[in-house]
Amino acid sequence: MSSLERLDAASVQDTVARLEARIAARFPARGLLKVAGELKVLTSDVEDGASAIRSRLRWVRLGSRVAAVLVLAATVLVFVLASRDAVRAGPDRSFEWVPLIESTINDLVFAGLALWFLYALPQRLERGHLLDLLHRLRSLAHIVDMHQLTKDPERLRADFVPTSATVDIGNLDRSQMEHYLEYCSELLSLIGKVAALCAEESQDSLVLTTVSDLETLTTGMSRKIWQKISLLPRESVPPVAD
User: What residues form the membrane-spanning segments (predicted)?
Assistant: First the structure.
């Protein structure tokens, strides 16, 4: 498969590591650095977990297929033996066949359910693993959104008047706030990319839908951040302390 047809996990991990280094160089004491570190851990979990889950699923798939064959063979054998005995020594009157037919249908239904459970077992295990990673990524996206929530361009205006409830954002001037918001936007974009990595090896509709929803969420959050950046004043005004 061409490198342009799939997302490379190593490249995404390198990009996350570079972003973490950029945040550390400019905001070493900010909580945003910890968020970048957590995203790097999640990216590593996705990359390392992909090969591990594939290896584990191969054994689970093999075991489930063997068990399914055994269930199918046992069902066919029991059905053939029961049919032979019923024909040879079955009831003489037709209404006496009703309980036997009902019992046969019930056995076939239960056998079908067992076969479906065994066939879908590997997919359910993979789905559970990927949904857990996607849930952690969604939580991280909301944490990034919380970090940018109080970074209001209005605070850099010359006529801004703080109140007793004004949140302290530290000594962020215009340039620093712009960089901070840009880093938040980049983190959200990378969260979407890491989510897309989860779907590289999966065709599960629920996983694909969750990835799409998460990408929509991060895109919407990033759009709000860029609206803030566009509202930043052209000239830097020292923020007013609480």
Answer: 62-83, 103-121
